[in-house]
Write a structure and sequence with these properties.
This protein is of the alpha/beta class. The protein has 2 domains: 232 residues, Rossmann fold (3-Layer(aba) Sandwich), CATH 3.40.50.2000; 158 residues, 3-Layer(aba) Sandwich (Rossmann fold), CATH 3.40.50.2000. The chain is built from 14 helices and 12 strands. It has a 7-stranded parallel beta sheet, sandwiched between helices. The protein has a 5-stranded parallel beta sheet with strand order 10-9-8-11-12, with helices on both faces. α1 packs across α14, α8 crosses α12 and α10 packs across α13. The longest helix has 31 residues. It starts with a strand and ends with a helix. Keywords: Transferase. It comes from Streptomyces mobaraensis. InterPro entries: EryCIII-like_C, Glycosyltransferase_28, GlycoTrans_28_N, UDP_glucos_trans. This is Glycosyltransferase family 1 protein.
């Protein structure tokens, strides 16, 4: 089949689909990934075709307050909608199957309706309503089974509002009759088509009250095109005891110098060497006990560190479990508090340290507990054993293959 995967957002929102796409390609499918130009090298390095999608996730710094966050999300949806149809149908050919991430699905449904191309949702977060936990973007406080489901349904309505304007414009461009976004979503739910989730049940068990069409496959690991870490990093790792890794992914942080100094102070208070990943926060330090790096495969580095300080994005959270090392999650926004809370609940992290309340003393205390109190490392290793038995991309490929036998 010709398969097009449409994914939008930060690096962590796109990278897992390079691994999924590479597995589908290995199964004989012709795979293209549509994403922002920022991620073109990532996609092409996996041996996949690339199509541009106007979905630059950078919004010029931190977003403060729900109103500003909603405005930024609606602006992102508008940019995404402007090129969604061309990304799917352009570049000299269509597709036999469309896979939509959580950020592209609300607009992708309209394109699939207009073109008649079969589609599946393929999400990285458990975003269908459930009584087991509240929506992943609404905080971590449970409201009981009825309350969690009610807030989950409300969260979907908020998403409908965010995409409503972009969806109206897209339907007009596609020549489709007007339709409310909530009605389109309900039609998708009524089809009974599979929805795939690329996370591990070791981290979040599949909710028992989900419809059978919701399948948790296991994590889709980003494609890796190298088996070596940079020489300077290898030298640093060999020069002393395992360091702690500190990185906040694509998250902006404001005052880079202040944050870098805070992190180095915390590492030294905890008696640890450190590897700082620059990322969106711009972390940087120059010292014998601290090394600053760019992007490297987490799969190669994390098993060799004492602990991982991270923003608790879905991909980085999964990578810490795969490596079997304890975490110190420092959630910033969106679904990150949810993943951080899961790590703490599973005893793979001593505590979450919210970014807005981050201090050198608090980070040093959490790091010290993570590396010296054995239960955290033991729990992380047990979870790694479970994750190692999963083949998320393989399971997703099986479901895709089964679609070829359906009318």
């Amino acid at each position: 089949m010709r398969i097009l995967i449409a994914a939008a957002g930060s690096r962590g929102d796109v990278a897992p689909y390079t691994g999924l796409g590479a597995r589908l390609r290995a199964e004989g499918h012709d795979v293209t990934v549509a994403a922002d130009e920022l991620h073109a090298p990532l996609v092409r390095a996996a041996g996949l075709a690339f199509r541009p999608l106007p979905a630059d996730p950078r919004i010029g710094g931190q977003v403060d307050g729900k109103r500003q966050l909603m405005g930024a999300a609606a602006a992102f949806a508008a940019r995404l909608g402007q090129g969604m149809a061309e990304a799917v149908t352009g570049a000299g050919g269509g597709a036999d199957l469309l896979l939509f991430s959580a950020t592209t699905a609300p607009l992708g449904w309209h394109v699939a309706e207009a073109t008649g191309i079969r589609s599946l949702d393929a999400h990285l977060q458990p975003n269908a309503p459930t009584g087991d936990f509240p929506p992943v973007v609404s905080g971590t406080r449970t409201l009981g089974r009825w309350g969690n489901r009610a807030v989950g349904r409300f969260s979907l309505r908020v998403t409908d509002r965010v995409f409503a304007g972009a969806a109206r414009a897209l339907r007009a461009e596609l020549g489709l009759p007007p339709a409310e976004q909530a009605a389109v979503r309900r039609r998708q739910e009524e089809t009974g088509r599979p929805v795939l989730y690329g996370f591990s049940e070791a981290l979040v068990p599949r909710p028992a009250d989900w419809h059978p069409r919701h399948t948790v496959t296991g994590t889709w690991w980003p494609h890796r095109d190298t088996d070596r870490l940079p020489a300077v990093l290898e030298d640093f790792l060999a020069a002393g005891p395992p360091p702690a890794f500190v990185g906040f992914g694509s998250m902006p942080a404001g005052d880079r110098e202040r944050l870098s100094a805070l992190v180095v102070d915390a590492l030294r208070r905890a008696g640890l060497r450190g590897v700082l990943q620059s990322g969106g926060a711009g972390l940087a330090a120059d010292a014998d006990d601290v090394l600053t790096i760019g992007d490297v495969p987490h799969e190669l580095l994390f098993p060799r560190v004492a602990a991982v300080v991270h923003h608790a994005g879905a991909g980085t959270t999964a990578a810490t479990l795969r490596a079997g090392v304890p975490s110190v999650p420092v959630p910033v926004m969106a679904d990150q508090p949810f993943w951080a809370a899961r790590l703490v609940a599973l005893s793979a992290a001593p505590a979450a340290v919210p970014f807005r309340r981050l201090t050198a003393e608090g980070l040093a205390d959490a790091l010290g507990r993570a590396v010296t109190e054995r239960p955290y490392a033991d729990a992380a290793r047990r979870l790694a054993d479970r994750v190692a038995r999963e083949d998320g991309a393989g399971r997703a490929a099986e479901i895709v293959a089964a679609l070829e036998d359906r009318p």
